[in-house]
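User: what does the whole thing look like in 3D?
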Amino acid sequence: MTDKNHPTPMLDELENGPWPSFISGIKRLRDEHPDERIRGVNNSLLGQLEHSYETRKGYWKGGTLSVYGYGGGIIPRFSEVGGEFPESKQFHTLRVQPPAGNHYTTDMLRQLADSWEKYGSGLVTFHGQTGNIMFIGSNDENVQHFFDDINEYGFDLGGAGPCVRTAMSCVGAARCEMSCANEHKIHRSLVNNFTDDVHRPALPYKFKFKISGCPNDCQNSIERADMAVIGTWRDHKQVDQAEFKKYVGEKGREHVIENIISRCPTKSLALGEDGSLIADEGNCVRSMHCMNVVPKAIHPGKEHGVTILIGGKRALKIGDLMGTVVVPFMKLDNEEDYERIVEMAEDIIDFWAENGLEHERCGEMVERIGLVNFLEGVGIKVDPNMVSEPRQSSYVRMDGWDEEAKDWYARQTVAAIDKASDAA
Amino acid sequence: MATQMREAIESGCPDGFQYMHPLSVKNFGQWKFHTHPRPGVLMHEAYSGDQLWTVRCGTQRILDVFTLRKLCDIGDDYADGHIHFTIRSNVEYLIDDEAKVAPLIDKLEAEGFVVGGTQNSVAMIAHTQGWLHCDIPGTDASGVVKSMMDELIDEFRNTNMPNRVHITTSCCQINCGGQGDIAINVQHTKPPKINHDLVANVCERPSVVARCPVAAIRPALVNGKNSLEVDEKKCICCGACYPPCPPMQINDAEHTKLAIWVGGNHSNARGKPTFHKLVASGIPNNPPRWPEATAMVKHILKAYKEGARDWERINEWIERIGWPRFFEVTNLPFTKYHIDNWRGARAKLNSSTHIRF
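Assistant: Here's the predicted 3D structure for the full assembly of 781 residues, as structure tokens:
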């Protein structure tokens, strides 16, 4: 066997050092796997990868490939150097949606491994930057068989191409005391409403949902999602004063002032003479810092909901964009609330599908047409929480001012009534 | 008649509750607080009094099925049979009993995995596909990360940075690795080399023209063939034309470099989220171990560790000391390339007399 192995002098260097080596793993598949097909695929793969290391170039080309009835979900890879490395000349990735929150049992992981050994290379990543399980390395014929296998026990392909993409959500309420939302339910309610748009790419470009349970935003949703849904609270944070005083007693006043009080971005905290926490709740922006430092004493409030931001994305084409607040606060207490958020996502995607240019992300469209045109298109009213500051330029036509002002006061009245009925 | 094809079940995203640890299901949304007993371990306590212990460990991320099965076996023998993956591809074992923590850690370390990555550590580097699988990569991803984690393993295992450090890498300027406290990203420095024989057959030319962020591409007849040409004076060498048009090769063994960006922070903790900013470029793309890039990352980490106060992420540290001081303490050159000229650039210039001497 060994004499048929492609030499890998550069890759061998990556077997040194204390961190686990992916090269050692690929070599194990090449040398020890009982299936000759898998041994051959991994030998070819190592050969091509070594060739890339030597020449500093990639040699995979894309193409068009999916499973029966779908238009996406697979990243086709054909080798440009398949003549030299024939056994991995087709090396497609299947993007598979993980269970919301990335929870698995060992039994389910083994079942996935069994299916993958039948039809793939034996290499897998939990998870790619898209949030998918990446089953790396199958061929034209086997992608269908592998999909059929895992689809029977509950797994489905994720998005690839101009479509609704696989969503991501943090561990959230399953483990974290900061969670202010059922990330799990939001995640599945949103993305599973769009399975047709996940599987059949027909949108201007990609559209991503990411859900974080609190403003720590462990899912990077503001910077990476077209629609970011982030748990938050509307009432006062909960402070266990006895526990806080204990912390002050242990660490000392100076430490607490330096590390908690003075770090509040809106200067909403003070330290009482008795070691209690004095909080100006009307000025708390949910920056999380005080509770991140003393999770045992400070906790999010009880009136949970979500903030929604639209339009985050990375560089291509007009540069990085963060999401913009379009819903400062929305409750997600009952099924009607979940229907509302799903309808909002539908309205946003429909409007963007109608008005976005080819290869234009939702945030780029908002940049091009202006936030107000977007809000009017999807039926959302303006709110001062959407801006960091009002307009500076006078170059705008304002002859609708009186109607807008009247509308604002009318909405304020309705909001006050709603809040009063919530409290009642 | 053709063989009947199987109809897909469009089930979408699976329900995670069926795989979740029973204590997570029982105490869903009812957690009270957490502690950090040691690096790599978290203890979450619920209002019910239940305690859920998490042991986090780093892996090679590109898993072979042997390694995946080994992680499963460890999960059965030393944990409760439930595995959770973090956004940075760490494996987490959730367990219901403190007594199981130490034996699990010993087993993971004995099998070559690395327990850590919590709190104020250098977390596992978020990375992309690279030469192993991507169609447009300027560099490898897994190899860069393996090389760096070999040298940052103590920072992963311990929690003695001022705050957590998220490092990301990306193999092209699309930057799938995302924002990072430190980001190591490919930076091309020369315009694409065009194979005019192939463009007409391979590329949808109007789409390629539209893809260019600076309108530097136009249709052209070259040697009697329909092709595309690039105005090399306008070209910013971003590589955006390469994915839709592979004959416009942007990758180059010598001229594809690595750049380092710092201060990206996705969290709303204390300040608002921030994007990373350029600090160094021209770093050679040097497989198999990329020593120059790793040395630069360690150099910046050292300055941060020495200079930052507790809880300051890299962006907050630099915000406090100012960019001139950052370039001073790191002894990195400040060049004309650091001054932004993209849209919104004027807002990034200093329009005040606030200057530190």
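In plain terms: Chain B touches chain A through 120 residues (CB under 8 Å). Chain B has three domains: 24-115, 130-189+253-348, 193-249.
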